[in-house]
Write a structure and sequence with these properties.
Helix 1 crosses helix 2. Helices cover about 80% and strands about 0% of the residues. The chain contains 7 helices and no strands. It has about 200 residues and is mostly helical. It has one domain.
Length: about 200
């Protein structure tokens, strides 16, 4: 196993459910710990008989939700102060903030659901959702539904492929990077199309 993965595994073996809860909470806050890998390793512990699959899934869902909601409330509490700070007025203009608010009202729910599967930018999206005052109930429900879907899958991967855990970890890691790259590429293309559209409108 990779050195960092080995450390994570030994940590989870020592602290089991409490350790998993703490790690996922830190992941939710944006600490650079691979959440997906942590969940897969927790499933591997269940395969070994150190923990149990149902309890691991429950702790996993609670851990990711507590971390995500904490980051959302941090954005909700202090994000507005950053946005309204005079040094950032050139970035967070009134027009841009109005557009962001409209986007959240129209696409916010699906964005939060999809963000649960994007380890590289998930924390930033959650923080932004809080700063832009996205409805707390909507945020919680969509994040919870996504966690209900994703957490059992990642835990099960570690549980089912316990004999070949190293290969499973490599597959999950590559899949996460590919998915993130696809999303970033799509966003870049859409942004480029938006700029072209605005340029044509300006010429007219």
């Amino acid at each position: 196993m990779d050195g960092n993965v080995l450390v994570l595994t030994q940590y989870l073996e020592s602290f089991t459910y409490i350790g998993l809860l703490l790690l996922l909470f830190m992941c939710g806050l944006g600490v650079p710990i691979p959440e997906d890998i942590t969940l897969v390793l927790s499933g591997y512990l269940a395969y070994q008989g150190i923990t149990h699959y149902p309890q691991t899934v429950i702790v996993g869902i609670v851990g990711v939700m507590v971390g995500d909601m904490t980051l959302y409330f941090i954005g909700n509490r202090w994000g507005t102060g950053i946005i309204n700070h005079h040094r950032f007025n050139w970035i967070f203009t009134e027009k841009r903030m109005e557009k962001a608010q409209r986007y959240l009202r129209k696409y916010g729910k699906r964005t939060i659901f999809i963000a649960r599967f994007l380890s590289g930018i998930r924390a930033g999206i959650h923080l932004t959702a809080g700063a832009l005052r996205m409805n707390t109930f909507d945020f919680f429900i969509m994040d919870f539904l996504a966690a209900l879907f994703s957490v059992p899958i990642f835990v099960y991967i570690g549980y089912y492929f316990g004999e070949h855990i190293e290969k499973a970890l490599v597959l999950v890691s590559k899949s996460s990077r590919i998915l993130l790259a696809l999303v970033i590429t799509t966003i870049a293309i859409l942004f480029f199309c938006y700029l072209l559209k605005k340029r044509r409108e300006t010429k007219l």
